[in-house]
Amino acid sequence: MQLQGTARCQVCGRVFASPYGMRRHFQANHKMPMHPCKVNGCQKVYQTKCHLNEHVRAQHPESLHPCRIDGCTASYATEALLQAHVESVHQEQSSTNETETS
């Protein structure tokens, strides 16, 4: 019997005060991780991209993607993050420099 205002995990049977709490529990404890490390030989898998990126920075610094703009020391775990950095930081800088010289 399920009491009003409670939710039970169908995997482990744990009872929660709300369906939201049960969904959070399920996501954290029972859902398969979806972000595998792509470095050769590494078999780590993470539930979030953020945790994967933290792992890559800490365990595989040689695989980071450094920014190629002179004077910039930023580096990123993925090419997509590097591209986003270049577009947001360095495009704004070039727009600012063009405005100042006009």
Number of separate helices: 3
Order of strands in the sheet with the most strands? 1-2
**Coarse structural class:** alpha+beta
Query: What is the number of strand segments?
Result: 6
% residues in beta strands: 5-15%
Outline the low-pLDDT stretches.
none
How many strands, which pairing sense, and closed or not: the largest β-sheet? Answer: 2 strands, antiparallel
Binned, the helix content reads 40-55%
In short:
With 102 residues, the protein is α+β, with helices and mostly antiparallel strands. Among the domains are: 32 residues; 39 residues. 44% of the residues lie in helices and 12% in strands.
Structure keywords:
single chain; 102 residues; alpha+beta; two-stranded antiparallel sheet; 12% strand; elongated
SSE order and pairing:
Blueprint: E1 7-8, E2 15-16, H1 19-29, E3 35-36, E4 45-46, H2 49-59, E5 65-66, E6 75-76, H3 79-101
Description:
The model has no long low-confidence stretch (mean pLDDT 83). 44% of the residues lie in helices and 12% in strands. The strands form three sheets. The chain has a two-stranded antiparallel sheet with strand order 1-2. A two-stranded antiparallel ribbon has the order 3-4. It is built from three helices and six strands; from the N terminus they run ββαββαββα. Among the domains are: 32-63; 64-102. GO terms for molecular function: zinc ion binding. Pfam families: zf-C2H2_4.
